[in-house]
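Researcher: Quick one. two chains, 831 residues in total.
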Amino acid sequence: MQHLKRSINSFTFLKRSKTWSYQRFCATSSESNEKIEIPNYIPRSPTSILRALSQTVGFDRTAAHFKYHDDPYLIPLSNIGKRSFALAQESGRKSAKWIRQQHSNLFQHKEADPPIEAFMPTKIYTAESEVNTSDLESLIEHSQVTDAILVYTLLKNKNIEIPSNLQLSFLELICYHNCEEPLDEDLIEERWFRQSERLKERPRKTWKDNDLAEQLYHEIEPKDSKAHSCIIRGMCKYYQAEKAWAIFQNCLSNNIQLDVHAFNSILNVVMLIKESAELRWQLILELLTHMKNQQISPNLGTMNACLNTISNMGVKNAKDYATSILTEFKKIGIEPSLSSWYYVLRTFCNNRGPVSHVLVDIMAEIEGKEFEIRDIKDTFFFVTAMDVCKNHLFDLNLAKRVDALLHHGENFNLIGDSFKESTYYRHYFSLLVQTEPIEVFMQEYYDQLVPHVYIPEPMVMEEILKGVEVSGQIEHIPLLWSHMICFDQIYRENLLNAIVRIMIQNKPDISIKSQEKLPEQFGAIAYDIWSKIEEKNELRSKPMIWSGKLLGDILKLLCRINDMEKATKIMDKLANDQQKILGEPDFTAMQDFVKLCILKKQPSKALQCLQYCSSIGFNETRDLAKLICHGFTLDENHMKKLAYFVGSDVIEEVEREKQTALSENLKQ
Amino acid sequence: MNFLPIIQQNAPISMQIVRGFRSSAALSSVQSGRYKITPKRDRPLTYEMANPPHFIAHRKAWNSWNTSNLRGELRTAQCITEDMFIRKFMTGTWHSLVLSEVIIKRQFNHIRIAALIKQGISARKMYFLLGYTEEMLSYWLQCPVTLELQTVADPKDVIFKYI
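Model:
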């Protein structure tokens, strides 16, 4: 409903119609002499109307992402579900594509007019295919690397001459992709969920040495500056710094003009060329001077490359270097992108170093702006900024500002991938739960974002439980427990122990309205824990080992709701599987159970408990026996058993106590 | 028994001229879209099946939504064969999972396919089939295809009555 209201408000013509009146209409019609000013033409793209429409609808946090099917059975409720559902759908897509490619002769019909290439199978090339240069051209255009390489070799074998500009664009293609087939452009889920981005953090040489790219580079004669720049950029992209540096130096000494991108790439791998921070800085300066001498104007990429190298130095001076680079580039009017700020954060906010408030200054600079992607590392900014807020500054207000910026305009597109998104929210949530009051946290953040936007990892869940424990707001426990089941976190012992501990230590107060139903709910949760784990243990090859403490606590919670049947099950488990259980339960749990037995008049169960206690060797077993004697009128058989477990002197003692109590009563 | 020769012999000539028009109950009975009652009354029908065709637009709606049947519109025949293909493809791909008729709606160049699906396979497998069906059909029909499925926990839920 809110959306609808918002969308109606955003149609300005409707707003205007409210103030429309007959008088005004007459007034305007009488002034017909007024010159009509035709507004300037606003250039629109084919998708502008779609954008305008989508702006009228806000983001619905209570619904699953629209890539999932809108059906309760098909909506994912855990992180694994989110991942596997989206990828399963895409794998279905991929198999359809595979079938189309395998039987491409069947898919040659033309329904659409003009034909849509995306629906057609791609042309299949083999070693026998008849090829010409236009094939290569179209393959390069569609960046089909493997096929392009095949066609190129075929053309070479047939001695068909390839024009030099085509050769150059082919070189560009294979340098850019390192002679490997790139991931298809329409596989968005695979991009979103894959983890290789994280690995790329640490530069590792992946350039294919002496492969086609290098051969082709050596073959091209005469080489112009583009070919040199191209191979340097390719090598730097895949961290083959040594060779790139050699070619680069060669070009410099031969006075070959390189383009700005080649310089940027070399600046990016300075840390692989020189060892110490001092030498690296020297090299950066040297390269920038070369650019100046060759009259190459630097761009955003130059600044980001410099900042990247500086952020990897890890020395004190790095901060000064970064500041000087920033001021220098500001002077020539280059506006930093988010990735520049990401590098700045990495330089300034080292966890081992002193606390730096540079993020506050950055936020002052960029707050309220909308960003588009300008550098590939732009997507690293938000996750790093949140990391700094949580781990470096521990500043809630700043974190909220960062979050506001992320949700401003279309900035959310820059969150990156699923890994970055969940890291971002992990930091945000654990900061919130530690600083905000728990009721505010639950209402304003947890209820809003969980589970469709973010599903807390076990670590964060533990922090939330800790928050609940500290505040004593136990009415959130049932919700958290049901979420833990959904998120598949109930087999983590630390979480189980935490939730049980909270339930034991905070006995619900029935007089408070919000806690009225809690005792029953707690009992249900306790039994849920028991049955879920037992169920799972039967299936799993490596069962979870029960701890005596946990079982005792579950027993205690069940005793609180006077559920004899369920409590008996737990007691049976304790008594029968003694050797499989780690540690021993709390003695108070045993007391509670015996009291429950007395209430329900079940002497044999109470005796079973006594037997268990004596075999464990609790010091207080005698007290328990006394409790039983007082609570029940035991028959001959039971008496014998009791005497067997704790010795007949206890019975005599109790008898004596009873006698004295009786005589005292008589006296009165 | 064939009475026709006897009637022809005995009938006057004027009656022989109007020959060709028959209005007996047996001939005017219509069968398509109707289901026979079984002796044991145990044939399950969905709501859709329980309503014969003359209730279309009264109690139930069309299974194919498009404009190609209107006067002067294009692709009448293609549309029908495509719809048949889509239905075969759906019931074959979602094998023994489709519990209802397959509804096909066309808007511009976009085809939306709706059906009720039994929760007989895991959600993950369903997503695989979803992606596969959408992609495969859009390759075949060369236009965007969207599946709009609803899952049903118990197949008995869709049964409207037994006849």
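Residues 123-141 of chain B form the longest helix (19 residues).
Researcher: Thanks, that's what I needed.
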